């Protein structure tokens, strides 16, 4: 079998009911506790956990599929955070600080998994086994952004499966290192600091001196045209060229999640498809049914409402 065809699934965030409905819609059936398709395989873009009510069930479904070979998955920023929260340095400090803000962000996961329980340790150990990206024949998958320089920085910190080693995880949590910057770009997406003296106020009234970038858009060459989630305030940004080019220009299609897109699922670009349509905000859980094409098509999106 040359190309099994892949069904790439966006961020689930602990919503197991839509996941079950999507699996059935894509003709996966649960046999002996594992969802399988007779011919195809699934790939998850990460962010299995976070706020949804059924995080244990989401992990059970995804993990059993990965362990049985009926799916693969990449690491999301929420799994990376969970690893850092649960991992100590030699001096006893946790890689991710247990600050009130971080504790609040992680509270629902820890409530459902009970910190330091066997289930919690087991979940974190599975997160450690997720590769940072997948570069397969014909398609690529990463949680937030495909970026060659960031991949190169991390290459020496990965094991043979493409997972960060223990040393690689520690290095990625050291602020100011190249590894930290690389993981931020790959798992949270690129940001660009605005030119000196320029800022804007976001919809919550917070002063912002950085913009998130629409790296999948070939025309996004200036601050104004590249800025993401500006809610109509783009005109407040300069129309000058970006100092760094993050645009994805390769022909091989890349699938990602992370961006909490609004509205009905639609195509991001012909070679780069975001599959996160905000299931955790009453949006859609979305998959792309890929069968070898290089030019991605909207008709191959399959989604279920939250
Ligand atoms: Mn994410």
Short synopsis of the structure:
The protein has 306 residues and is α/β, with parallel strands linked by helices.
Task: Please give a structural write-up.
- The chain has a single domain, classed as Purple Acid Phosphatase, chain A, domain 2 (4-Layer Sandwich), CATH 3.60.21.
- Helices cover 29% and strands 18% of the residues.
- The protein is built from nine helices and 16 strands.
- The strands form five sheets. Strands 1, 4, 5, 14, 15 and 16 form a six-stranded mixed sheet that branches.
- Strand 14 and strand 15 (284-290) form a beta hairpin.
- It is globular and about 60 Å long.
- The chain starts with 5 loop residues before the first strand and ends with a strand.
- Bound molecules: manganese (II) ion.
- Manganese (II) ion binds next to loops.
Which secondary-structure class do the elements indicate? alpha/beta
Number of domains: 1
Residue share in helices? 25-40%
Flag low-confidence runs. none
Spell out the blueprint of helices and strands.
Blueprint: E1 6-9, H1 16-25, E2 29-31, E3 34-36, E4 41-44, H2 55-68, E5 71-73, H3 77-86, H4 100-113, H5 118-128, E6 133-136, E7 139-142, H6 148-155, H7 166-172, H8 178-188, E8 191-193, E9 200-201, E10 207-208, E11 210-212, H9 223-226, E12 254-256, E13 272-274, E14 276-277, E15 284-290, E16 301-305
Parallel strand pairs: 1-4, 4-5, 7-12, 12-13
Antiparallel strand pairs: 1-15, 2-3, 6-7, 8-11, 9-10, 14-15, 15-16
Helix pairs in contact: 3-5, 6-8
Residues 11, 47, 76-77, 143, 258 line the site of manganese (II) ion (MN).
